[in-house]
Amino acid sequence: MAEIISILNQKGGCGKTTTAVNLSAALALLGKKVLVIDMDPQANATTAFGVQKNEENSVYRVLTGEQTMDEAIVPTEISGLDVLPSHISLSGAEVELSKDIGFPFILKESMDGLLDDYDYVLLDVPPSLGILTINSLVAADSVIIPIQAEFYALEGMADLLDAMNLVESRLKSPSPIKGILITLYDSRTRLGRDVYHNVKQYFGDREYIFKTTIPRNVKLAEAPSHGKPCIIYDEECIGTEAYNDLAKEFLSLSNDLEDNK
User: Fold this and answer.
1) pLDDT confidence bin for 259, thresholds 50/70/90
2) Are 126 and 46 in contact (CB under 8 A)?
3) How far is the C-alpha of 235 from the C-alpha of 47, rounded, in Å?
4) Which residues contact 31 (CB under 8 A, 6 or more apart)?
5) 3-class DSSP assignment, residue 122
6) Interval 117-136: pLDDT, tens
7) The CA-based dihedral angle spanning residues 255, 257, 260, 261, taken in that order and rounded to the nearest 10 degrees
8) How far apart are CA 87 and CA 38, in angstroms?
9) At 114, is the pLDDT very low, low, confident or very high (cuts 50, 70, 90)?
10) What's the rounded Cα separation, in Å, for the pair 68 and 87?
11) pLDDT above 70 (res 258)
């Protein structure tokens, strides 16, 4: 049975898509079977895998019942890694889905019968707290929150945590935080070190903060324009090294949680 993880933060530019793409690729290269579901109408994760953006195979058609998830999934060039593409049409899905009384559960229900095929499903969630995000939270077993090492890093974090608590209490669907991931990090700058310290203070011992940090790296920014995850685009850059380390830490954390069940 797959573990479903939403990669979530309502702030844009914090590395959600970069993390979804490169963590999934690193896990697949470690022998795991992984599915990425691109829940963002901008479809950046779709593009980053070199997958054509079209409405024929898309999460929009899955959510509106025109296509099954199994029909819409597309393989990537990495063995063991598939993607459910997004499309700009998904931006109109919130209005359509809101007409369904059971709208928070549509994504979760569309996964029925599919989860035995994967070890992990990663959801690249849009930077908002709307219906697509609610669906992603309801479907997920846990959440990874990327936080950029910048001045306003924790701005809006209380709203995000409130939204997660609301989904848990109102919809009886808990999505605990699997880990907080510091991105765009530069240990040489005082700002980077201060933000890291502030994040640790904010969450204290309540949540797990990944020991791995993701550096600011030009190769991570370049790779999507070539339709490849960075760990394929440049196997030796510091961005690739960081995501390979994160994948190993992620697996270690998952194994620890499984052992404690």
Assistant:
1) low
2) no
3) 19
4) 80
5) strand
6) 999 999 999 988 888 999 99
7) -110
8) 9
9) confident
10) 16
11) no
For the stretch 186-191, contacts whose Cβ atoms lie closer than 8 Å and that sit 24 or more positions apart, written own/partner, are: 186/149, 186/215, 186/216, 187/213, 191/149, 191/150, 191/151
Q: Mean pLDDT over all residues of the chain?
A: 90
Angle at which helices 157-171 and 131-139 cross, to 10°:
60
Chain mean position to CA 249:
16
- Banded pLDDT at 113 (limits 50, 70, 90): confident
CB neighbourhood size of 129 (10 A): 20
Alpha-carbon distance values, 15 to 1, 8, 23, 53, 130 (Å): 27, 10, 11, 21, 19
Stated as kind and residue range, the H or E segment containing 28 is helix 16-29
Residues pairing with 123 in the sheet: 6, 37
Listing DSSP states for 47-101 in one string gives: HHTT----SSS-HHHHHTTSS-HHHH-EE-SSTTEEEE---GGGGGHHHHHTTST
pLDDT band with cut points at 50, 70 and 90 for residue 191: confident
Nearest to 183 by CA among 251, 238, 128: 238
Distance of CA 82 to the CA centre of its chain: 14
Q: Which two tokens stand for residue 180?
A: 């907080």
Residue among 9, 173, 4 at smallest CA distance from 102: 173
Greatest alpha-carbon pair distance for the chain in Å reads 51
